[in-house]
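A common beginner's mistake is to predict each chain separately and then try to dock the pieces by hand. The better habit, illustrated here, is to supply every component at once so that their relative placement is modeled jointly.
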Amino acid sequence: MRSIDHFIGGSSFASGDRQGEVFNPSQGEIQATVRLGTTADLQKAIDAAKAAQPAWAATNPQRRARVMFNYKALVEANMEELAELLASEHGKVIADAKGDIQRGLEVIEFACGIPHALKGEYTQGAGPGIDVYSMRQPLGIGAGITPFNFPAMIPMWMFGVAIACGNAFILKPSERDPSVPVRLAELMKEAGLPDGILNVVHGDKEMVDAILDHPDIAAISFVGSSDIAQYIFSRGTALNKRVQAFGGAKNHGIVMPDADLDQVVNDLSGAAFGSAGERCMALPVVVPVGDKTADALREKLIPAINALKVGVSTDPEAHYGPVVNEAHKQRVEQWIQTCADEGGELVVDGRGFTLQGHEKGFFVGPTFFDHVKPTFRSYQEEIFGPVLQMVRAQSFEEAVRLPSEHQYGNGVAIFTRNGHAAREFAARVNVGMVGINVPIPVPVAYHTFGGWKRSGFGDLDQHGPEGVKFWTKVKKITQRWPDGSAGGENAFVIPTMG
Ligand code: NAD
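With all components supplied together, the output reads:
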């Protein structure tokens, strides 16, 4: 059986007896094992990072950017192989796996412009003979802890910017689909990145805790579920690390009475069921405004949902593939039961779905509930599966209130032809990312990504200018070059510009 090992100091590193199982979710079978590392394994990565980082930080930013340019070309050249590997461990269909890689590459493209993004500020003559300037310096060693659902994009969000800024990086990817992160690191070496600047350590809680507690790690970026995000944020910040930690989601799609319902059905099918609903920017809740809108939408949605094709990740016709593992399949099916028990009307039931020839695969059919209430636990919590819940709102005000009062605040979308309603909604809703007739409003790489409330802990977002801020610290310099003539003010009084 293939063993997925750590990647430290530019080489594969196998150590330890503890191993995790990596499945092929389409087949329901174990296809590889992954090392579950220890504090000692982390120390090896820290030693490699520490040895390499000062020279990398001293490399001028244009040269660092050139590694990013090479990397972009290399990842593109290896796109097919990476997408197949990704799909085989995650279960998403190949076209979607390519999207996962491409969205990460767009952050690498942003990182190609790092010399510009790192420029400091300068004020000449801030006082008599005094200039003030600032410089952005790398933090040293940063770490990224990533979820299973975007095994290429999310690591690249983090290491693309961190490394371009002059840091060394330790990536702890999800133990459920760890192969692509290792391939991404190998390709960085091929692109010319010095050994030790990008290391991949595998593991579970033991490795995460080792990262949290290690005094040489200056900053941690985390993406995953909310309880873990909160844990990472509190433990990391208590140890004086810089931490950004992004959590779960329950995104709402508001459908106004004037919306183009055919467009909405099209957008919702992809946003609710694409990638088996395993996206933090999926749209698992639809909120039509008024019963007339709800009834008309329901009538169009049911045939569209019944027409969805669930298949293995290599099936080019499939709209979505299996969920990530058996435990998650059971969890999603349990939530379907809970929602039905709570009084939701189960219009399309995806439980018990099997695919001929792939009976052991972790498939869940598309599921649709109507008449879901905000008091349901199945509405309040994230399901992270191909389950769409319809919550009927009676007014625009109620539609603004539902996502605003939800514990999560990652993304939200409004479908309407009314510019005034859209503008009001965007200004008032208490959610971090808003789509107007855009179902999955993930901002492009040179903007920033981040949710609010229990979807995001910390105050700086991922990638774009906020990412540069997160991975650097600002040094402020006040300089004076006296001409030698004596004089000056009373040194015991705080200098002012008065
Ligand atoms: P997860 O929280 O189970 O795992 C995320 C990471 O934390 C993994 O690397 C895992 O090894 C580690 N981890 C797991 N349990 C831990 C523990 N007890 N202590 C310390 N570390 C632990 O998340 P997942 O199932 O891999 O990913 C799905 C979740 O991620 C969903 O909630 C989804 O909404 C969220 N997500 C959020 C965003 C966002 O940007 N907000 C993006 C993608 C995914």
